[in-house]
């Protein structure tokens, strides 16, 4: 199947990517409702992601484990998602000024961890689907290229074998001809061919010369006939002059 002529493979991969998004959303909803998914699948990666994120931010800002209590749901909704970073920076600055240096990062509550874990799971599914599509496309193109190369190599080898076979056959024929016809026979055959060619050329030249002579003779006869049968011009009759008085 050629992707350039009829892109079925690309359409198939695009369909997989589009299907993966609603599938990820359904898995996220199921994870929010199911205690098993929430406890064993969503919470551990969410807490780990939260811990790594907070630890990285604290390392970048020069802090060593300062605890920042997250906003509750009402305050976060009122403040807005865009200003959560501002809240974090504000609290960090205040705690730094006041001299607080805690060593532990407070984990997320159960609802926030479940939400974050479900989002991470959905993004992981979408990323896995896209990565799988890319890997499949790469593998397909590589396999197609390998098959074309193998076919080209096989064709070249077959042509080389045919050329070698023809060369060997030509050498054998030349050897057989040289062995069957001695030198004198070859000279005689060459002389006969030359004589035949000369005779053919002489015949063709004679025929051409004869045709040209006949054409010239016909033209000459036509001119003579025209000269012989051309009517003579009669002198014009002149009126007698009147006598002068």
UniProtKB/TrEMBL annotation:
Keywords: Coiled coil. It comes from the Eukaryota. InterPro entries: OPA3-like. It holds the Pfam family OPA3. One of its GO terms (biological process) is regulation of lipid metabolic process. GO terms for cellular component: mitochondrion. Belongs to the OPA3 family. May play some role in mitochondrial processes. This is Optic atrophy 3 protein.
């Amino acid at each position: 199947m050629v992707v350039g002529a009829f892109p079925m493979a690309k359409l198939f991969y695009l369909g997989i990517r589009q299907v993966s998004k609603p599938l990820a959303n359904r898995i996220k909803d199921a994870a929010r409702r199911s205690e098993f998914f929430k406890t064993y699948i969503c919470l551990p990666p969410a807490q780990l992601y939260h811990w790594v994120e907070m630890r990285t931010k604290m390392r970048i800002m020069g802090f060593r484990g300062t605890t920042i209590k997250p906003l509750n749901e009402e305050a976060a909704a009122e403040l807005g998602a865009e200003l959560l970073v501002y809240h974090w920076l504000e609290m960090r600055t205040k705690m730094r000024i006041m001299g607080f240096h805690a060593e532990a990062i407070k984990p997320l509550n159960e609802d926030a961890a479940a939400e974050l874990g479900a989002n991470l799971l959905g993004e992981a599914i979408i990323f896995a689907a896209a990565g799988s599509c890319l890997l499949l496309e790469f593998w397909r193109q590589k396999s197609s290229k390998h098959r074309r190369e193998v076919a080209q190599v096989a064709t070249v080898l077959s042509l080389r074998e045919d050329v070698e076979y023809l060369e060997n056959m030509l050498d054998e024929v030349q050897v057989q001809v040289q062995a069957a016809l001695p030198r004198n026979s070859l000279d005689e055959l060459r002389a006969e061919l030359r004589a035949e060619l000369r005779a053919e050329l002489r015949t063709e030249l004679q025929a051409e010369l004869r045709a040209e002579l006949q054409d010239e003779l016909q033209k000459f006869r036509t001119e003579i006939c025209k000269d012989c049968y051309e009517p003579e011009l009669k002198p014009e009759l002149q009126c007698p002059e009147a006598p002068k008085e």
